[in-house]
TrEMBL record:
Residue ranges, compositional bias (Polar residues): 241-252
Compositionally biased intervals (Basic and acidic residues): 254-264
Protein name in UniProt: DNA primase/polymerase bifunctional N-terminal domain-containing protein
Span list, region Disordered: 241-264
Domain named DNA primase/polymerase bifunctional N-terminal: residues: 8-158
Domain of life per record: Bacteria
InterPro entries (UniProt xref): DNA_primase/pol_bifunc_N
Species: Trebonia kvetii
Length: 264
């Protein structure tokens, strides 16, 4: 029995679903990637017995493990400063094992959960849980192996929400922009209406009335009426145009205070 097959079967015995990847790469060999991961010994033997050079991957998230991936991108940065912050906060105390990755980074193993895979690119850290996968020893990438460094003794979970809040504190909300004075807005619109030439006076009044009502559905439109009268519109036409603007606004739904969940 080859080494990769032994490791694959050992993972399956502890309930971790596994699948094969291309030799020296992280590319899945199965059609549906991690979704095809299995704990079935016959399937695992079929995958790995004939080709001991295939890389071995584990589907993360329960029943598999959760894995904190500390990246090392050379001059572009690495996740070790973020790792130190998480360790100092006591969030890594339950890690079960540590594996050195081919790039010089680390994988920390935790008990698997239903948390979702997530990323912190600015901190150079990934959290591999439900919806993810990870290569394990004796896999290698670019000729460099994954190396199990030590068992850490923990048997708990990583609270990723707490970790993410620590690594990326909530942005401070900007104070809301000062709202324009409705009186000033009406005055500005009225000056514009009064300046409209013949042929655009009615359309101009309707447009200005809608802008005023967008800000306040109960807005006093009498300054616009006076401006339209100054521009040359008859009172009957002014009344009809303003009433039309009010009806249009009344049939426009109020914008919601909050976007519905999932809205983009």
């Amino acid at each position: 029995m080859n080494r990769v097959l032994r490791q694959a079967l050992a993972c399956a015995e502890r309930g971790w679903p596994v699948f094969p990847c291309l030799w020296n790469m992280k590319v899945p060999l199965t059609r549906h990637g991690y979704r095809d991961a299995s704990t079935d010994p016959e399937q695992i033997t079929d995958w790995f017995a004939r080709d001991p050079h295939r890389n071995l991957a584990v589907a993360t998230g329960a029943p598999g493990p959760d894995v904190l991936d500390i990246d090392h991108h050379g001059p572009a940065g690495n996740g070790f400063p973020a790792l130190a912050r998480l360790r100092d906060a006591g969030l890594l105390d339950q890690a079960a094992a540590r594996i050195r990755t081919p790039s010089g980074g680390l994988h920390l193993y935790f008990t698997g959960t239903s948390q979702r895979t997530s990323h912190q690119p600015a901190a150079h850290i990934d959290f591999l849980a439900a919806g993810g996968y990870v290569l394990i020893p004796p896999s290698q990438v670019s000729g460099k192996p994954y190396i199990r460094e030590e068992a850490l003794g923990g048997h708990g979970v990583l609270d990723w929400d707490a970790a993410a809040r620590l690594l990326e504190p909530a942005r401070q909300h900007r104070p809301p922009a000062a709202q324009p004075d409705p009186g000033q807005q009406i005055s500005a619109l009225a000056r514009w209406v009064a300046a409209q030439p013949e042929g655009n006076r009615n359309a101009g009044l309707y447009w200005a009335a809608n802008r005023a009502l967008e800000s306040d559905r109960a807005a006093d439109l009498s300054p616009l009426a006076a401006a339209a009268r100054q521009a040359g519109l008859a009172d009957q036409e002014i009344t009809r145009t303003l009433n039309s603007a009010r009806r249009t606004t009344q049939h426009t739904p109020e914008p919601p205070d909050h976007q519905p969940e999932g809205a983009r």
